[in-house]
């Protein structure tokens, strides 16, 4: 079965974006485009952690609720959360109410501050794990890579939680460290152009 499907404009897109109406805009404007903004990177890694065991549709539908609950994923603010905030979040029906995942976000916010102090930015650290383009791997055919395994191990070593290799690989796909749009997808060339002109962040 092909990984492509015609979009509303008749142009070919990744098949997965037809699964839910909200996926189309996400696919066309966000997924795979390179990101260097620390807050967006932190948000995505947190949301991928919340997705563990669930569908991305569930998380995407609740994304604005997550943003409101976690102050726009400002990790300097989240790092100050205490047990009262955990209880507040556990009582919020607009998000996924999972104690372990909520506590992981707070923990990871504290680790993020440490990373920024050491590396200059989260982006500088994450983009260090950008893989070289692979010519012999079909897009969307794998769920982990050597780089996602290495990044997962590095994050865990520094105390991050809910950052397994599959979660990290999905993060890398979404944040543009990999162009995993299907061959023939109309957005693939747009992402590739964005990646070619993207200024890779370096440690400050």
**What is the H level of CATH, i.e. the homologous superfamily?**
Hypothetical protein, domain 2
- What count of structural domains? 1
CATH architecture: Orthogonal Bundle
Amino-to-carboxy terminus distance: 46 Å
The overall average pLDDT, rounded, is: 95
**Number of DSSP helices?**
11
Low-confidence stretches are none
- What is the global morphology? globular
Q: Give the helix/strand class.
A: mainly alpha
* Major sheet strand order: 1-2
Largest sheet: 2 strands, antiparallel
The portion of residues forming beta strands comes to under 5%
CATH topology: Endonuclease III, domain 1
SSE string, helix = H, strand = E?
EEHHHHHHHHHHH
Oligomer: single chain
Helix content: 40-55%
Q: Radius of gyration, rounded?
A: 17 Å
Task: Give an overview of the whole structure.
This protein has one domain: Orthogonal Bundle (Endonuclease III, domain 1), CATH 1.10.340.30. The longest helix is centred in the middle third of the chain and has 21 residues, at 99-119. The chain is globular, with a radius of gyration of 17 Å. It is 52% helix and 3% strand. The chain is mainly alpha-helical and 204 residues long. One of its GO terms (molecular function) is DNA-3-methyladenine glycosylase activity. This is DNA-3-methyladenine glycosylase I. One of its GO terms (biological process) is base-excision repair. Zn(2+) binds at residues 14, 27, 181, 185.
